[in-house]
Design goal:
CATH architecture of the largest domain in chain B: 2-Layer Sandwich
Largest interface: A-B, 13 and 19 residues
CATH topology of chain A: OB fold (Dihydrolipoamide Acetyltransferase, E2P)
Distance between the termini of chain B: 41 Å
CATH class of the largest domain in chain B: Alpha Beta
Structural class of chain B: alpha+beta
Number of helices of chain B: 9
Number of strands of chain B: 20
Shape of chain B: globular
Number of strands of chain A: 9
Largest sheet of chain B: 6 strands, mixed
Oligomer: heterodimer
Helix content of chain B: 10-25%
Chain lengths: 124, 365
Amino acid sequence: MNFPEDLKYSRTHEWIKMLEPATCLIGITDFAQSELGDLVFINLPKVGDEVVKGSVFCDVESVKTVSDIMTPVTGTIAEINESLVEAPQKLNEDPFGAWIAKIEHITAVEDLMDAAEYEAFCKI
Amino acid sequence: MDKKTPLFAEHEKLGGKIVPFGGYLLPVQYGTGVIAEHMAVRTKAGLFDVSHMAEFMFEGPDAVTNIQWLCTTDISLMTDGQVKYAMMCNETGGIVDDLVIYRIKEDKYMLVVNAGNHEKDAAWVEAHLTGDVKYQDISESLAQIALQGPQAKDILCKLCAPEYIPGKYYHFVENGVLDIGSRKINALISKTGYTGERGYELYSSPGDASDIWNALLLAGKGDGLIPCGLGARDTLRLEASMPLYGHEMNEQISPPEAGLPCSLDGKDFIGRQSIINRGKPSVKRVGLKITGRGIAREHCPVFDKAGKEIGWVSSGTHCPFLGYAAAMAYVPAEGFAPGTVVDVDVRGRMVEAVIVSLPFYRTEH
């Protein structure tokens, strides 16, 4: 189980990489993909969508279930990782490389955990 | 309090992800994941713990009479060692459960019913028994292991002399003998399954289950045999368009509506007259190949291209071997022939699908 040190983590198992003060990349963690199982589908947001911290901004599907992905930041979707459409399994194979969306114009951020705190959080 | 099957310790050892199902704790998958497990069954072989299934024994002069009354199928022409698929219906013609019937002897039959309906079915049977029959719920005295896939026969042959392996589909050998280490272990071996591949189901005493399980895994290692969980069991049966109680069947749906075999002209059974009274079915079960972006799942409403809601999805998932999302749905019996394009409401989005004939997948093996 990986917990890269240079990322921040939400309580709902998303990772965030701050790029500039008001821009970030977001994805799901190794813990999340392991819990979800083989992912077969992703419902990406659209570029330009306004997202609000603490709410659902996209969902992924494993063979058995649909799971919501939350955004811990308020902002606008700047880019989406289209390669995940044809290859959702990348989320399982490389969760920290397979970013889902780039969010810009960030105006609010939830309290996030660092790697050590998140690792401890996962172990509970 | 969910029960453990005789193989629970093996699942833990193998890293199975345990979930509650039908009153039991069973692995939904192992570390390999649902897709790899599904593909193993389609291309090599998979091993399933299906001990949660319930078994009822009927014995005595009126065993046949009772089964004929309870079940849709006519068992009078069965031979020793034969298996038949059937349903039990309620008084309104809806389905109580689907099951398989094993004829051991002329006056001795084993019925295998769904774990999720165990208590309901036992109560139903007990309420309808007549005459001179000994009925026993023998579920606790049996473990069941399913070995499924193109390599299943070769793997079983390593543990079992040919005379104990049933040759024909839907037949069984009551007193199969497995050579495991220095022991000879008895098991009823049937050529049956719920995956759409050829394979076997082995019924043994609970105490022997681990030895059989581990011996099969070892014997099949070189053939690519892996243990498979409930997740793959569901995607396999759906890909093969096999119905599942609680989805394609329930207490309201009749066998003709579900497209399941049910003779109304022969012997009488509970619900037969009600099914006749329902007349020509107004709904039918169809296959949907999802052509748009999305996965249709149970309860999703189905719409015609004019925007009218005309049906509902009973089961749906991504099918790993076929590579597309497929679903079974109930639509009006008139029209809606294969090739008809429909829309499915998937969590608020309309996703296009096309009606296809069943099964989605048929094995070549």
